[in-house]
Amino acid sequence: PSTNYTLCEVSVAEGGFVKQRTLPDQLKNLAERIGLASRYYIKNIHDSETLLPDENTQDLQKESHVALLQLNPVEVSTQLMVEDFTIFRQIEATEYVEDLFEIISRYGTPNLTTFSALVNREMMWVISEIVAEQNIHKRMRVIKQFIKIARQCKETQNFNSMFAIVSGLGHGSVVRLKSTWEKIPSKYQRLFNEMQQLMDPSRNMSRYRNLINADNVQPPIIPFYPVVKKDLTFIHLGN
Predict the structure, then answer these.
(1) Which three-class secondary structure string do you get for 3-66?
(2) Which of 74, 165, 206, 211 could be bridged to 150 by S-S, CB 3.0 to 4.6 A?
């Protein structure tokens, strides 16, 4: 019977230490929760045998060390969209009101606070990945990879991540790497410039607003949160 089985997570920590834990039956979003150095197993509760043989421990550790250049840009943008939208859709309408009027309530603004922090977190991720790479050729490939990811974010209408990545690429610590940028193919430089123009703050971010209001852009979308906050603030001040 099914009551004889349970779902377990086996993970390998630093130093090769293997951890095993039984997961609760009501746990959801299993695909989103699993780490790179983890695996799920169906275990017979009456069986004491180790789920992960010693010879597989090293393989699992290797799988957990994945470099950005090994990843598919489409897959990375998809994961960013899943993470961002999972948080965005949980934001209660009252959180916007409480944040705008600086109201302190029992519920607070947990989801809005988390979502608003995503821009800085994703921007710093871009910056750190680029400046940490010392090899100029690999650094060029990392920049090109992020341009591809930003383009895919635009295609999936995750404008929050797209702007975060473009902001990271336009940060002073990245822009100053002129010898690296000179190696970027003109196709990708042009693509980056086009996305950067969408961030033009002139005329109240008109290029970005025209983009999200275009007929071919249909919900759901993940908006660029700083613009949402700015609009709510102006509505409040104007009334």
Answers:
(1) HHEEEEEEEECHHHCEEEEECCCCCCCHHHHCCCCEEEEEEECCCCCCCCCHHHHHHHHHHHCC
(2) 165
More confident residue, 59 or 133: 133
Torsion of CA 82, 83, 89, 90, to 10 degrees: 140
Cβ-count burial 161-199 (b if 16+ within 10 Å, e if not): bbbbbbbbbebeebeebeebbeebeeebeebbeebeebb
pLDDT digits (tens, 9 = 90+) for 107-158: 999 999 999 999 999 999 999 999 999 999 999 999 999 999 999 999 999 9
Q: How far is CA 151 from CA 26, 80, 161, 165, 190, in A?
A: 37, 13, 10, 10, 12
Sheet containing 18-22: order of strands: 18-22, 5-12, 38-44
Work out the widest C-alpha separation in the chain, in whole angstroms.
Answer: 68
Q: Which residue has the tokens 């989103």?
A: 32
Pick from 192, 146, 162, 201: which is nearest to 84 by CA? 162
pLDDT digits (tens, 9 = 90+) for 165-189: 999 999 999 999 999 999 999 999 9
Distance CA 223, CA 125 (A): 20
* Residue 182: both structure tokens together: 């000179």
- Report the distance separating Cα 142 and Cα 122, nearest Å: 15
